[in-house]
Amino acid sequence: MELKKLLKDLCNAFGPSGFEEDVRALIREQVEPIADKVEEDALGNMTAWKKGESDRVVLIDAHTDEVGIMISHVDDKGFLRFATLGGWDARQFPGTRVTLKTKSGFVPGAIGFTPPHITKPEERSKAIPTENLAIDIGVKSKDEAAELGIVPGTPGILDGPFVSLPGNRAMAKAFDDRAGCAAAIKVMEEFSDTKLPFTLAVNFATSEELGLRGAKVSSYRIAPEIALVLETTTAGDFPGVPGHLSPCIMSDGVALTVADRTMLTSPKMLRFLQEVAQKNEIPHQLKQPLFGGTNAGEIHLSRSGVLTGVLAVPGRYIHGPSSVIDLHDLDCMIKLAIAAIKEIPKRLM
Fold first, then answer.
1. Which residues belong to the active site?
2. Helix, strand, coil abundance in the chain, percent, nearest 5
3. pLDDT tens, 144-160?
4. What residues form the annotated binding site for Zn(2+)?
């Protein structure tokens, strides 16, 4: 499937942390024809295996989940209170459309807020705490909400359909980390007819946004020797963000993690990725430390340790329904991952 179409389908899919089954189904359609085996574990990690000439394992990791919400309470008038799944900025909630998923289908709604006509000026300048917000799904009672399948524990997302923008850019929810998932699929396609010197495991991890939970389990099971994590990270190149607080910028190529809150990249791995990028003339940049964290935080500590690197697509406004990326950067990430896999047997094994 063409990259942009694949990315659109993945981003539009419903998949908050712990509820990524729709995303996994889309990915399975792509990888099953080219994998030797596809397996899922108890948590919801899905791993596609490509058997190589040895049992030594190189891991490609991307997470399937997006930040989301979960219904925590339904009041007598049918308004829904909610908790957050992952790291949200509550300033973006009021007035935002949401989609909730029940056993019988999807239910649309909106996060209500007091309109400016009846609020004081000082109130309008403050962020509304999440616990003071409620979702309106158009019903009149708790019973009507229940008839739609809405109960505590119902998952949801903030709506943000994929839109193409000028200059090979795009806007959508869930680039973090459906861009990484799309890249991982493309990497696997590249080696579909190749017998690699090692076994390639491409893992689509659950629940990264809840504290790297899926990666902790999957990395132990897969037992890789080397890992590359494909991610989407914070781009700060927009008004109001000073340079020293901007982890990376859009359109300058794939971002390589030096250190974040979960891992300090081994100088050996960082040097390797930089040299492979330079050799293949792939645009790249170093992500400023110590912003963010990824599945690499758990992977590199698995068993007796895993040599791990992180490649990321810079994205503006991530963890929101209208993130923006440059597909040029995504293409750079795919190219570097492919080039690195080709070099790993000669340089790192």
1. 208
2. 30, 30, 40
3. 999 999 999 999 999 99
4. 63, 176, 209, 231, 319
